[in-house]
């Protein structure tokens, strides 16, 4: 009936849900061997090193944005999000807490939201 391709498992849809799946993966690397897992190596270096990597990746993403290189910006953004997820996992912050904050701000002017934080 169907060809081999249609019998294969369909790839996961491309959406932000990949972040939730990646978070599960990086959480699972806690306590893994730093010699075989880059994520475990980051954990072994501590929160300050993980935070430093987030900053480095943010700067690299900014540089690619200024250059106007969308492909490079996409790659650097993926690196930034990965390192941010590792930082969240290191500190025990569930991404759902961030998603809730974003949802609460949805439809709110950025200017109004910033004012509300000062109050």
Number of E strands:
0
Annotation field: number of helices:
7
- Enumerate the spans where pLDDT stays under 50 for 5 or more consecutive residues: 1-6
Q: Give a short account of the largest sheet.
A: none
> Helix share of residues?
over 70%
Question: Termini, distance in Å?
Answer: 65 Å
Question: Helix and strand layout, with pairings?
Answer:
Elements: H1 4-7, H2 17-28, H3 38-45, H4 47-67, H5 70-91, H6 95-105, H7 110-118
Q: How would you explain this protein's 3D organization?
A:
The chain has 119 residues and is an all-alpha fold. It has helices spanning 4-7, 17-28, 38-45, 47-67, 70-91, 95-105, 110-118. It contains 7 helices and no strands.
Summary?
With 119 residues, the chain is mostly helical. 73% of the residues lie in helices and 0% in strands. It has seven helices and no strands.
Tags for this model:
single chain; 119 residues; mainly alpha; 7 helices; globular
């Amino acid at each position: 009936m169907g060809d081999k391709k249609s019998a294969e498992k369909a790839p996961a849809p491309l959406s932000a849900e990949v972040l939730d799946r990646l978070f599960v993966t990086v959480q699972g690397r806690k306590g893994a061997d730093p010699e075989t897992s880059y994520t475990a190596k980051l954990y072994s270096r501590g929160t300050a090193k993980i935070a430093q990597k987030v900053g480095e990746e943010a700067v690299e993403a900014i540089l690619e944005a200024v250059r106007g290189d969308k492909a490079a910006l996409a790659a650097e953004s993926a690196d930034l999000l990965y390192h941010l997820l590792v930082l969240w996992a290191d500190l025990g912050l569930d991404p759902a807490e961030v998603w809730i904050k974003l949802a609460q701000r949805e439809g709110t002017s950025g200017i109004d939201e910033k004012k509300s934080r000062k109050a």
